[in-house]
Design goal:
Elements: H1 3-34, H2 37-58, H3 61-71, H4 76-105, H5 110-135, H6 139-162, H7 167-194
Helix pairs in contact: 1-6, 2-4, 2-5, 3-4, 3-5, 4-5, 5-6, 5-7, 6-7
């Protein structure tokens, strides 16, 4: 194993994670100053619930995928497709359960929970692609979508806040930005297969 590549990959992964967290905190700081307490509370509540449900949908598949892909790169697409099939099915079921529960208990925040859960599930779906790239030791294909998505999200949120957008429109910005993660992931897979 090339020690220089390991060092570069480690720096890239750490830098990407740090950058993504920093931009996320900046976005939250902007939203805290812009949204009302009730809107922010509903948003944080929705994000917490959706994150718990999204974590359940992983079932340890990210670690499995990294291990299997790194051990047997020739079967990596098969492993990724199996994991994505399972994750998509689980995410749809858990999305329905989560939003059904909220509709029955607190229907006044169902739109916020629904939109938030969609963006969080999209974000967590990309973790499967990310695990695939990490297993292949192609950290750049994991890092670029992470950075691009966070930058796009920051631009969309700042633009929305400047035009006095509602929380609903801001959540659509989150969804729009997070749609690009799986798109970038699919593009990265194509680049790796053609290389």
């Amino acid at each position: 194993m090339d020690k220089q590549k390991i060092k570069v990959d480690l720096i890239l992964a750490t830098g990407t994670s740090f950058f993504a967290k920093l931009v996320g905190y900046i976005i939250i700081t902007i939203l805290v100053r812009y949204l009302t307490k009730d809107e922010m509370g509903a948003f944080f509540f929705a994000a917490t619930l959706a994150t718990i449900f999204a974590l359940i949908s992983t079932l340890g598949t990210n670690q499995y995928l990294i291990r299997e892909v790194s051990e047997k790169p020739e079967g990596s697409i098969t492993h990724l497709s199996q994991v994505l099939s399972l994750r998509l099915l689980l995410q749809v079921v858990l999305l329905l359960i989560l939003n059904g529960f909220v509709l029955l208990t607190t229907p006044d925040i169902i739109l916020t929970v629904f939109l938030t859960s969609i963006y969080i599930f999209l974000d967590h779906l990309y973790y499967s692609f990310g695990s695939y790239f990490l297993g292949l030791r192609q950290v750049i294909y994991w890092a670029v979508p992470q950075i691009s998505t966070k930058l796009l999200l920051a631009v969309l949120v700042i633009f929305s806040v400047n035009f006095n957008a509602s929380l609903t429109l801001i959540l659509f910005c989150y969804i729009l930005a997070n749609i690009f993660n799986p798109v970038f992931g699919s593009f990265g897979m194509g680049q790796i297969r053609t290389a």
